[in-house]
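Per reviewer request, we include the raw input and output of the structure prediction for the construct analysed in the revised manuscript.
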Amino acid sequence: MSSLSCSEQLAPLFGPNATNAVAAAQYICGQFDTVSDNFANTGFAIDTTYLLFSAYLVFSMQLGFAMLCAGSVRAKNTMNIMLTNVLDAAAGGLFYYLFGFAFAFGAPSNGFIGRHFFGLKDVPTDAFDYSNFLYQWAFAIAAAGITSGSIAERTQFVAYLIYSSFLTGFVYPVVSHWFWSGDGWASPTNTGNLLFGTGVIDFAGSGVVHMVGGIAGLWGALIEGPRIGRFDHSGRAVALRGHSASLVVLGTFLLWFGWYGFNPGSFNKILIPYATKSYYGQWSAVGRTAVTTTLAGCTAALTTLFGKRILSGHWNVTDVCNGLLGGFAAITAGCSVVEPWAAVVCGFVAALVLIGCNMLAERLKFDDPLEAAQLHGGCGAWGVIFTALFATEKYVNEVYSGKPGRPYGLFMGGGGRLLAAHLIQILVVAGWVSVTMGPLFYILHRLKLLRISKEDELAGMDLTRHGGFAYVYEDDSHKQGIQMRRVEPSPNSNQI
């Protein structure tokens, strides 16, 4: 038997002598329904505004990437790296609109790849609005931006366009479908088919975003080789320092600011109460996530500061900035499900991972101008493992409420099933990116579309391929009869 409506329950309360009690009850209940609808609409508006604001914060990270990349390369390649950052966003926006969002979140679908919402067809739905697309696009171009740093200062512009479109339109969306879509084979929200009964808890993307971008950059840098002069004839590393520590610091702070949209914003909604206390809800989890993000980054920065001081004898601001970002990349997976004290552990180990990866890179003669592969790939992988060790039972059940009692961190008494799922994530992400991006970079290399000529690299791409330097220099060379001339690409070169 169906439950009685509001008016059917209210009318008898007016008593037998009330005139037109049913009509009065219907009118009063209608007013209550209107108020209820307004509250519901207000809730949707608050959650959508929160998600849009988070998307704007994540998009501001593109400016951070641009400043960080510009400061980390030599002045003669500044215009080139800035242009690639702009094109990551522009090309990524078009290809994520056409294909990427559909491959990532098009539902219903299979566990491997989405099949709906191409070109945002049929959006909005009850599950996805336009704000969801904007937020996820900002994540996709962040992954592409990571890769651009690894192959900076020696890569042809056409190669940037090709890999960025492929990464944001196909490679990254498939990974995000696996771990974030409700249909993904390893998603914690796919309650009908959870990997090891838990799925992978990669809340904001240590594996989905940072490992994807870092491993793609690893293959790009490996295939095209180190920059000229990075290693001398005896194989010893030679520092090719960026031209502006000020831009590096500016970019780092912009990325720090944007990370408050990256991690806390990944809740997508803020107006969700938790049952335990009236003042306690998802808004509190959002605040805790911002705190764990902050503590991990700060700890990693200080650990890197003193660690590099012991190893090199210098207080190096660039190393500290990279250490800070390494801590952020690591905490991104577990930021919502760990205690603040655990975030300190995460940041400390992330700094050691970054230092160790950089030492290994030098030994193997691997050249990454921004340490992007080491930072995002290495620290991202550590973040995936960290979450499987330190995720707490209470926070896991609050954030992933679809299946109460799911496994949590090994060190917190939750057993090893979450760790097993996360080790599988590391393997499949590394494998997928390797079999897609590795061959792409190799084909570009064989077609002579990947690396610029030796002459162009020595002169700098700003002068040979972008019409001039990024900076206007004041000099008196013309007074002595000396003039700087534009260096053109080699006439026999078939590079683009």
